[in-house]
Amino acid sequence: MVLNSKPGRVGIASTAQTAWLPAWSNAQHIDLISSVVQRALKASGLRISDVDFVIDSGSDVLDGRSISNCGFLGAMGAHHKEESRVEDDGLWAALYGVNKIASGSADVGLIIAYSKPSESDVSKFYSTLADPFCQRPVGLNDVTASGLLARRYAQQHGVGEEAFAKVAAKAWERACANPNVSTEAAPSVDEIMASPEVASPLRQLMMARPLDGAVAIILASEKFARRVTPTPVWVTGMGAAMDGNVFAMRSNTLDACAAAARMAYTKAGVTPASFGFAELSATSAVTELMTVEALGLAEPGRGLAAYLGAGIPINPSGGALPANPIMATGLVRLAEAAERLWATGGTGGGGGSALVHASSGLGAQSHCVFVVEV
Question: Where in the sequence is the domain holding 224, given as residue range(s)?
């Protein structure tokens, strides 16, 4: 195959998600994965033989065995196919897939991300991300890192614990309208502030809730995407950046998030004000606010007003606080954005473009940003 000298256009052809539950006790990984793969293929009208490559995101640590994806190749439809594993959030797998298709080396890619944190000790998973000599022995994990960020943010911008509670309450309120997310009722601000303290000033309900499930997205070159759907969701800009691993040496802002956003905006030729809505990933209420600001959706210290509705809609799906399928959260944001753009036809409440974000690492160390349009 001759590679294109100019990157080709890449579109999202179809998506599929399982329900996101606290525990899929009656289904194994392969059941969840095969379910979304079959549904994504059916929605696109493609067969597995049409798929050139498969890229999956998951965690050996969460799965409890090395090279765990080898046990899921059949469920992914990757038998006798080119298959790659991305040991990071699924939005990075999508970035890999988009670049592969844009280069001209493939036409159709299947991107899969899955998570079953109900079978793991999530705090131990996060502790493995800290270096074993200086940070892990003092108990650094995502909860403690988020607490340190919250303390700094509160002091810098003069906000209190109630601001973080308002973020969490709004996220849960939106999630209650999302049929994919298992919720009973949205906790109130008072209930959130009454939940157990986990890392001052953050409380349990201010942290993202790990959930089980799987998501699949089919990416296609322009010629294939237009055959599959009359309204492909085009990926027009992408960016990714990583901050330093030494938590104490980072700045008080999410510099890597801002850098990833600049890359994506420049490529797409857009500004933060041009989006119809944004789907963001964060593992705590404070990183939710810091992400809003780093993406340019609000001025520093003004993220709460934007999050509550002063700017473009943020996380109409509810986002990651009520539903954090670790390793799949960012790909879920991309699926939610595509589904919302399809539902509105690029008009009305969704607008014609969306901002999609994923983060990973302790205290939001790494960031990936997509701009998508219809």
Answer: 10-121+210-228
